[in-house]
Amino acid sequence: MRTLALVTASGAALLTAGTPAPATLAVAAGPEAALAAPAPAPRPALSDPRLAPVARIHRAPVRAHRSAPSPSRGRRGPVGAAELLAEVSACTQVSHGEYRTDEGTSATVPVCGMPGAVFWKADMDIDCDGQVTAACDTGTDPSFHGDTAFHTSDGKPLNAEELPYVVVPGRSGVWDYAAAGIRGGGVVAVIHGDKVEYAVVGDVGPERIVGEASYATAKSLGIAPDPRSGGAGSGVTYILFPGSEVSPIEDHGAAVAAGRALAEQFVRG
Questions:
Q1: How confident is the model at residue 76 (pLDDT cuts 50, 70, 90)?
Q2: For a Cys-Cys bond, which of 51, 113, 155, 212 suits 94, CB 3.0-4.6 Å?
């Protein structure tokens, strides 16, 4: 004869009040099942079916760690000089002729174009034009001119000692910067060696000469900024981003932020 203990849906045994706890019955597959010894009152244990889901939760691995990005998939740093130079290693000429780097030299520098940028590779002469400062005046620069083609938000000439800016060649049949989408305040990446400085288009120079930037641009790149004896004879790359504009033009922080974003798009798509 078998006696079975009935269990409710919640797992509690149906016991008659005041009736001793029944013996636990081990039910085998065949008629040889035997009556087991009386068991003490049940105690919660990890093997208890009612606690099994809790036990499984506590044994589960921490999934948040699995979904964390690996270091190799993290965001890369700002675009560097080598990446920018690799993008402009070849030139598709867009100018109708070439530019000189100085008076009396041969015209050897083309303006090159590609989607998202125009560029040239030249020297760097120091432009100290604009506001009179300790570093830029008629005493420090024999060719000093107290104005710039583009002005600050309050109508003043730019400050060459403080603001990194680039000089573009005057509009001519060789190349027209405005027709190419370049305007005052446009963003420029200036590269020398392993350094990149983000500047703005701040002044317009002679129609047949290219390769000039402000005192502040040269200083930030480690180039001697003295307008008489400084500058670099070669090895400077100027990458201009058509359609860009920093406003106000004197906000260098905004130029750096915009330049980094444009360089990222230009190099990494």
A1: confident
A2: 113
Of 234, 193, 263, 248, which Cα lies nearest the Cα of 108? 234
Asked if 197 and 217 count as a contact pair (C-beta separation under 8 A), the reply is yes
Contact 118, 109 (CB under 8 A): no
Q: How far apart are CA 214 and CA 202, in angstroms?
A: 9
Place of tokens 């990149």: 196
How far apart (Å, rounded) are the C-alpha atoms in residues 108 and 89? Answer: 16
**pTM attached to this predicted model:** 0.73
φ, ψ of residue 214 to 5 degrees: the values are -70, 165
Going along the chain from its start, the domains and CATH numbers come out as: 1-68 (no CATH), 82-268 (2.40.40.10)
Separation between Cα atoms, residue 167 and residue 163, nearest integer Å: 12
Phi, psi of 77 (to 5 degrees): -75, -175
